[in-house]
């Protein structure tokens, strides 16, 4: 395998169609082995580590042993100038490519920048072959095939293979241990994506057809979401490109395809790192909400108005397929929570058919604990806005009421949604009574900040459902836990016998150690006003805020009646008074 392929014996063919300052010649001692890789092939890809074995190096050992810092920059600048100024110096591209494998970070960074300038210029100047690229071995050894191309085309084909080698090396560097190397490799690859969009390396199928380097972008996305390394930091650097509508569209399609391939290979085994990487990427996608917002493109098309990427509906379809493809597989518990937190406002509004999420939400709702609490948001959207019918919904909601409900960090969200679900005046009295009774029972062990929220919450339920006031006005009702007919462990609200009980728990809370709680609980001793209490400000109340509020209270001076001290022990007729005096 050699350097530039001759069009005929010696340098005759290359000299016949020279370009720039002179033709590209190859003498007896100037042959250099070329670097050949299959471009953008499916995994496993060829490694760029074969470069040093294919090209004799002028240095002993690693290619950066004799180069570092300023020396490397100067050598690379000289190679770059030689390649760009004359095709006679084209073989010096190897000197640039081999330094992409250097051990020293500063040398690699300098080599990446040089590759960016070199192949960026070649793309702009049209000096890379356009069309179906032959395998380099076939092109060099097949005389009949080689004879079909002019010297100009041979040069472009050869340089196109060098460009492919550079791309594969940059892709491999996206997994380098240095983040600076990863970042610069990503930025350089995305620069090439943009340039291939402007100067395509594939021939248009017909005049006016749309061309976008989808396969190239797919290769970048594939390496943004590895299975064994957390790449969230690199993904955050990639987010700026998701502002382009065309890039975002093709990234969504690439992620969907990649998820299917990876999860099929692993046979549905949990891949926490891979799934976290995918979530980091797709959760950073910000979708347009109106058709006229799809106007920002990296690659401009001739008939832009007819391009399907211009249609909001197509974006929603790609977005929907991506999320459904991700969520149909089992997720780690931590990811369930992260998805559910953003589901109701960042995912559901941008789906063509939000009801397709019902399977995921019902599975999450049945898991229990904090995940079930978070699934309420999405279910509420589907029930309220899309007429979803969920059997035994209130039974499940009732089962979520356990001692942890007053302590979890999602407490405010849960009670906000519970308030909405229990707002209907058409709910049966036994159901609302069961919720009131269980909330009151759990309140006996709740912290003060939660009690100051749940007591007004219960009072609002009384205002909406007057039939439940029998729980308060029942003089002959149970006075403590031993006499209470309410069955706390009953899963079915209708069988809990809540309406037969009384709210002795609120009576007990009137003796709470915190004065504000005792005062709030005493409200039920009087007739409740018709106007509901606003609990929105109490939902987020924390122990710190409660304590801060207390220490900022100004105590008023209280007059006291007391006797002046006399003697050592303060008694009037004490023997010590005669012998000791307080000065």
Would you spell out the secondary-structure blueprint of this structure?
Layout: H1 12-16, H2 51-54, H3 70-85, H4 93-98, H5 105-125, H6 136-141, H7 143-147, H8 151-173, H9 179-198, H10 214-224, H11 232-238, H12 245-265, H13 272-282, H14 312-327, H15 333-347, H16 358-367, H17 369-386, H18 393-399, H19 411-421, H20 429-443, H21 448-464, H22 504-509, H23 515-521, H24 543-551, H25 575-579
Helix pairs in contact: 3-5, 5-9, 8-9, 10-12, 12-14, 15-17, 16-17, 17-19, 20-21, 21-23
Give the fraction of residues assigned to helices.
Answer: 40-55%
Low-confidence stretches: 6-47, 49-65
Number of strands: 0
- Termini separation comes to 111 Å
Biggest β-sheet strands, sense, barrel: none
Task: Give the helix tally.
Answer: 25
C-alpha geometry: elongated
Q: What is the succession of H and E elements?
A: HHHHHHHHHHHHHHHHHHHHHHHHH
- Structural class, by secondary structure, is mainly alpha
Rounded mean pLDDT score? 81
Radius of gyration: 37 Å
């Amino acid at each position: 395998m050699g350097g530039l392929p001759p069009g005929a014996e010696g340098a005759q063919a290359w000299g016949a169609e020279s370009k720039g300052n002179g033709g590209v010649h190859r003498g007896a001692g100037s042959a250099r082995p070329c670097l050949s890789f299959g471009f953008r092939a499916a995994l496993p890809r060829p490694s760029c580590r074969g470069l040093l074995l294919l090209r004799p190096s002028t240095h002993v050992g690693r290619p950066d042993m004799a180069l570092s810092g300023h020396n490397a920059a100067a050598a690379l600048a000289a190679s770059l100038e030689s390649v760009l100024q004359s095709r006679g110096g084209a073989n010096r591209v190897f000197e640039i490519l081999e330094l992409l494998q250097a051990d020293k970070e500063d040398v690699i960074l300098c080599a990446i920048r040089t590759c960016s300038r070199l192949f960026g210029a070649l793309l702009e100047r049209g000096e890379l072959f356009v069309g179906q690229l032959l395998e380099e071995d076939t092109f060099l050894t097949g005389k009949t095939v080689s004879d079909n191309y002019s010297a100009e085309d041979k040069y472009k084909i050869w340089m196109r293979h060098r460009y492919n080698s550079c791309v594969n090396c940059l892709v491999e560097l996206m997994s380098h241990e240095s983040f600076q190397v990863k970042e610069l490799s990503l930025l350089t690859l995305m620069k090439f994506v943009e340039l291939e969009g402007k100067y395509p390396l594939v021939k248009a199928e017909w005049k006016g057809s749309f061309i976008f380097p989808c396969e190239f972008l797919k290769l970048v996305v594939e390496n943004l979401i590895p299975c064994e390394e957390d790449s969230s930091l690199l993904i955050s650097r990639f987010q700026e490109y998701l502002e382009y509508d065309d890039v975002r569209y093709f990234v969504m399609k690439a992620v969907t395809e990649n998820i299917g391939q990876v999860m099929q290979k692993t046979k549905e085994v949990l891949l926490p790192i891979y799934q976290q990487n995918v979530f980091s990427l797709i959760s950073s996608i910000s979708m347009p909400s109106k058709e006229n917002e799809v106007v920002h493109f990296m690659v401009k098309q001739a008939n832009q108005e007819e391009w399907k990427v211009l249609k909001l509906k197509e974006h929603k379809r790609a977005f929907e397929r991506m999320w459904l493809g991700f969520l149909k597989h089992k997720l780690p518990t931590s990811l369930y929570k992260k998805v559910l937190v953003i589901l109701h406002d960042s995912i559901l509004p941008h789906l063509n058919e939000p009801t397709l999420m019902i399977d995921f939400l019902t599975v999450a709702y049945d898991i229990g604990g904090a995940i079930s609490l978070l699934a309420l948001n999405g279910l509420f959207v589907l029930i309220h806005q899309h007429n979803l019918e969920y059997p035994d919904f209130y039974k499940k909601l009732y089962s979520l009421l356990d001692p942890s409900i007053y302590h979890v960090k999602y407490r405010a969200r849960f009670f906000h949604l519970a308030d909405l679900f229990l707002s209907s005046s058409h709910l049966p009295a036994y159901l609302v009574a069961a919720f009131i009774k269980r909330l009151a029972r759990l309140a006996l062990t709740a912290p003060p900040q939660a009690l100051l929220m749940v007591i007004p919450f219960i009072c609002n339920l009384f205002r909406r459902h007057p039939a439940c006031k029998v729980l308060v006005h029942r003089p002959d009702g149970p006075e403590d836990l031993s006499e209470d007919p309410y069955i706390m462990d009953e899963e079915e609200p209708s069988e809990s016998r809540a309406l037969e009980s009384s709210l002795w728990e609120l009576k007990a809370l009137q003796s709470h150690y915190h004065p504000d709680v005792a005062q709030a609980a005493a409200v039920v001793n009087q007739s409740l006003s018709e106007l509901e209490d606003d609990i929105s400000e109490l939902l987020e109340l924390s122990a710190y805020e409660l304590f801060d509020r207390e220490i900022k209270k100004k105590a008023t001076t209280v007059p006291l009646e007391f006797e002046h001290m006399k003697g050592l022990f303060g008694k009037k007729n004490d023997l010590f008074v005669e012998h000791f005096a307080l000065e």
